[in-house]
Amino acid sequence: MRFAAELVAHAAQRMNPLGEREISLRGYKIAAIENTGTLKDGYDCVDLSDNEIKTLGNFAPSPRLGTLFLNNNRVSRVDGDLGAQLPNLHTLMLTRNAIEDLEGLGALASCTKLSLLSCAENPVTRCAHYRSYLVAKIPTLKVLDFKKVKPQERVDAKKLFPEGQPPTVDLRAMAPKPPPRVPGGAPPPPPGRPAGLGNLTDDQKAAIRAAVAAASTPEEVDELERQLRAGIIPG
């Protein structure tokens, strides 16, 4: 299906638990990001999960858009000018895509407000120095693959990838390693903890966005929203 005005008109829209205007374009078999001017920069959050998108980019200028979900697609490359298209993008979920090389992710350096990023379950995560590369290239990152970026990580990352200088390691030699064989599935998420929703901290907001990104069905998203309304925040 093509990204068009008719699709936008019929897509589910709501105010999400963070008070953001969100549109859900999940599961429409969208093959490419195009015609995004039809969104009229009217959304804080756009969910394009469970589609067939191969390239992240080609957005009409959208300064309002801060959160973008692209889980379960086929994304293998990122436009170098994504930051100009989405100047206020702070949360980007690329879990379960097809990104293989570090240099392809380097384009995310143009997103100067990006603070929460997930590339989990992409081949690129098996590259040597993957995490250090992104921490060095995107200094605004606070959470990468659902783990906080620690101060020492920043120090170590800058040693490997000093700003304005050639890296001290060979990027061409950092091919993804074969995936490890792990019996069973992933561990269940940690239990939530009661808290008020009146004044959320940045960490709490990040936890909520991560939980929404990890949801694989609309029903799971609805259940998360019910928990939030009851005052339970993922922790």
UniProtKB/TrEMBL annotation:
It is found in: Nucleus. Gene3D superfamilies: Ribonuclease Inhibitor. Residues 161-202 are annotated as: Disordered. Coiled coil: none annotated. GO terms for molecular function: U2 snRNA binding. GO terms for biological process: mRNA splicing, via spliceosome. Keywords: Leucine-rich repeat, Nucleus, Repeat. Pfam families: LRR_9. Its main location: nucleus. Residues 176-193 have a biased composition (Pro residues). The keyword Nucleus applies. Belongs to the U2 small nuclear ribonucleoprotein A family. This is U2A'/phosphoprotein 32 family A C-terminal domain-containing protein. It comes from Aureococcus anophagefferens.
